[in-house]
Structures are given as structure tokens and as C-alpha cells.
Known about the structure:
- This protein is 52% helix and 4% strand.
- With 143 residues, it is mainly alpha-helical.
- The chain has a two-stranded antiparallel sheet.
Amino acid sequence: xxxxxxxxxxxxxxxxxxxxxxxxxxxxxxxxxxxxxxxxTVGKMLQTLVKEEVIFSSKGPNGGFYMTVKQKxxxxxxxxxxxxxxxxxxxxxxxLSKCSSTHPCPMHIDYKLVRDxxxxxxxxxxxxxxxxxxxxxxxxxxx
Length: 143
């Protein structure tokens, strides 16, 4: 359902949110190494997130990517919409372009239930909800 880039973006944002309390800004290389992702992918994706104001960046010797309290409080769906677009939760589970309730694919009914539940989760869960288990050592961002 979500692209690999979108999953990488979610991990990167959770990582940045987990750094909020320390006031540290993070660079592309640091983020890419922590979440085990390509620097190129992370760099492009972070710029998109800055453009959409999901995160901020600053230049210079003390620059890097960071988040504010307000940004930590935004729902995960903001990251998904910035990277994969607003229609990600309307797509067919089999990738058909003309799948609908009147012209369903074989998985339509079941997939729609799961997709709608996942969308609700992404609208309800805040970024700060996901960085707390990381900071407490209960959850991890790499396998």
C-alpha cells in the first residue's frame, strides 16, 4: 500500500521527532545510517517533507533537519500524503485502474476494509505517539 520511499519517510520523521528533546538537528547521512536507507533517497524525501512543512531544515554549520512541537503533534497521514499523495488510500489492492464497488477486483471488499482501517490509524496516530516507544527502547526503526 505504501511505497518504500513513504515507509522510509515515516522512519526518518520518527527519528527526527525522537531527537526533539535534545534539540539536536540531524543531517542526511546520520538519518540514512540510522534508518538503514540510501542517502540519495533520504535526501530527496527530506526535501519533499520540508516543502510540505512536515519538518524544517536550516543551513550552515549548525544546520540540519528538525521538528517543532507542533510538527510532532501532526498525524502520520501528513507524511503519507506528502510522499505518496492523497489518493494512496483509494488505490486497488491489485493495482487495477478501474477497480470500484461497482466494478470490483477479486480482493476489493476485503482489501477496502483493511485499507480503510489503516487510513484511520494513520489519521489518528500522531508522530509523537510513535517516537515515544522508540525513546523508551520498546520499539526500533531498523531490523
